[in-house]
Amino acid sequence: MREISLHILDVVENGIAAGGSLMTLVVDEDVENNWLSITISDNGKGLSPEQQAKVADPFFTSRTTRRVGMGLSLLQAAAERCDGRFSFASEEGKGSRVFCSFVYDHIDRAPLGDMAMTMEVLMAGYPEVDFLYRHLYNGREFLFDTRTIRQELEGIPLNEPAVLRHLKAGIEEELEILRTERADDR
């Protein structure tokens, strides 16, 4: 995939398909130590130990809608190609967790991509799901939690077009501040 955000979108959608109602996403850009790490977890149905053993096999999927599951194997290959790591953990009835890391300045690392757009697509397509998105940049943090936003919206759905535009713009602005703010400005 051309951007890591597309891998993120794929993994999150798999978690939702597995019954996840809360998707947690942590993106940690540790430029000072030359690492990018991503953790995605869900509270879905999880996988059996037998299914977990096959999770990186591109010809295995737990879905019934298709017979191959390229997503995790492609993400694993992307991480390992950039001298990073990949891990998957799951517990039946509790959910799953995907972790991957990349050497930040590795020549083969795809760009992170448009995380504001990724979140907008997820909220538009899955308005009933909650998303906890935590983005770190050299130790500074931005937190986006749809559970809090829902309370403020007082019943207006997340996928209302005006709400989506506002939320996306807010994420874009906060990520820009996060990346440009100096540590002593905190």
Task: Throw out a few tags for this protein.
histidine kinase; HATPase_dom; 25% strand; globular; 6-stranded mixed beta sheet; ATP binding; alpha+beta; HATPase_C_sf; single chain; nucleotide-binding; Heat Shock Protein 90; 186 residues
Task: Summarize the helices and strands and which ones pair or pack.
Layout: H1 4-17, E1 22-30, E2 35-42, H2 49-53, H3 70-81, E3 86-91, E4 95-103, H4 115-125, E5 130-137, E6 140-145, H5 146-153, H6 161-180
Parallel strand pairs: 1-5
Antiparallel strand pairs: 1-2, 2-4, 3-4, 5-6
Helix pairs in contact: 1-3, 1-4, 4-6
Structure description:
- β1 and β2 (35-42) form a beta hairpin.
- The longest helix is centred in the C-terminal third of the chain and has 20 residues, at 161-180.
- The mean pLDDT is 91.
- The protein has one domain (4-185): Heat Shock Protein 90.
- Helices cover 38% and strands 25% of the residues.
- The protein has 6 helices and 6 strands.
- The chain is an alpha+beta fold.
- It has a 6-stranded mixed β-sheet with strand order 3-4-2-1-5-6.
